[in-house]
Design goal:
384 residues, alpha/beta, Chemotaxis Receptor Methyltransferase Cher, domain 1, Rossmann fold, 3 domains, 7-stranded mixed β-sheet, 3-stranded antiparallel β-sheet, 14 helices, 45% helix, globular
């Protein structure tokens, strides 16, 4: 039996022969008399034939070398390799036997039903979902339908309001609807300003009061911001600028809080962390191939995570904080809700504390006790 390379060569020869035959046909003869030289159009067509033949030859050689085309035998047509002929193809008759539901598009959420869900999101989370967010909301709702085994959006609406559920599905619904983008050392200018401008003075005041420096990561997501703050304060503590410190991370999503408490991250997630800090504060995980990393226990011990919904009217934390990071959170609220949330957070800020927002957020026009000291950085106090 010929080798794969020999068979590929034979196939290439057949392709060239077919191309030559087609080219000769274009040149043609009549009654044994040679025709004149072909015209420009005929010559161009002959060139196209040769180009197609060359392409077929290259494809045949490549496929044969990769053994994607089985070795043809005498009993197998060159135009129909066994591998191709053996692939089952659905027939028209078998397709007709499928139920009509198999070809029906997924149910789209009715405008009235969408508005009900959007209102619920606003009431529970303060997040305004306008018509442009409809596809996103519908996609996330479908995930909850699959998870609960329900068929329609209205069935799911009833499940959300089922008193026997005790609000369990409502929490999962909120988890599905909230966006949790975060990363280590996001907006690094904030941490530089914190280290060089604020922490030495804040640390000194805390030492004089015999208390720890208190920092709140509001809307902490998976904990990357909170652990970044822990690394920054640990470095300041080693330099003697800060004594003891504690960090609180809060979020509305129980799912991301679970990940924050586990403090385990993929290699690509830790890339923004400077190499020196990685070696100091991250441990390579054992038991999963060493591919993931966990925050060191001494750092985890200084950070705690709690669930908190900014829409809860009665929320108030016991201690006052020297620093509050609330970045890329209020951007999802409408203007009225933004003002309410910020003023509520400021109630938990020390009289000499500092408030950080995201680069795309502004407190301009709000009646607050905050004074701007740098872009997206504010100090509590009266405006002068």
């Amino acid at each position: 039996m010929a080798s794969a390379a020999e068979q590929a060569t034979l196939e290439a020869q057949r392709v060239r022969m077919r191309a030559t035959t087609r080219e000769e046909t274009l040149r043609g003869s009549s009654g044994g008399r040679l025709l004149p030289q072909p015209s420009c159009a005929c010559s161009l067509e002959a060139q196209r034939v040769r180009m197609r033949a060359g392409k077929e030859e290259r494809n045949t050689l490549a496929l044969s070398a990769a053994r994607l085309i089985p070795r043809p035998s005498c009993a197998c047509s060159l135009d129909a390799p066994r591998a191709v002929r053996s692939i089952p193809r659905p027939s028209y008759a078998s397709a007709l036997e499928q139920p009509a539901a198999a070809f029906a598009p997924a149910e789209q959420i009715a405008p009235a039903d969408y508005q009900r869900f959007a209102d619920l999101i606003y009431q529970t989370c303060g997040i305004h979902m306008n018509a442009s967010k409809r596809l996103m909301v519908e996609t996330r709702l479908r995930k909850r339908l699959r998870a609960t085994g329900l068929k329609t959006f209205r069935e799911y609406w009833k499940r959300l309001h089922d008193p026997t559920d005790q609000g369990v599905e409502l929490v999962l619904f909120i988890d599905a609807m909230t966006t949790n983008k975060t990363e280590f050392f996001r907006e690094p200018v904030h941490f530089v300003y914190l280290t060089k401008k604020l922490l030495p003075a804040i640390g000194q005041r805390a030492k004089q009061a015999a208390r720890p420096v208190r920092v709140w990561s509001a809307g902490c997501s998976t904990g990357k911001e909170a652990y970044t703050l822990a690394m920054v304060l640990s470095e300041c503590r080693e330099r003697g600028e800060v004594g003891d410190f504690e960090i609180l991370g809060t979020d509305i999503s129980t799912e991301v809080l679970g990940k924050a408490r586990r403090a385990v991250y993929e290699p690509e997630e830790i890339e923004p962390i400077p190499e020196a800090l990685r070696k100091k504060y991250l441990l390579r995980r054992r038991g999963d191939g060493g591919g993931r990393f966990r925050i060191a226990p001494e750092l985890r011990a200084r950070v705690r995570f709690e669930r908190l919904n900014f829409m809860d009217n009665g929320f108030r934390l016991e201690a006052l904080f020297d620093i509050i990071f609330c970045r890329n959170v209020i951007i999802y609220f409408d203007r009225e809700t933004q003002a309410k949330v910020v003023n509520k957070l400021v109630e938990s800020l020390d009289p000499q504390g500092y408030f950080f927002t995201g680069h795309s957020e502004t407190l301009s026009g709000f009646a607050t006790q905050l004074v701007s000291v740098a872009p997206t950085i504010y100090r509590k106090g009266k405006k002068t």
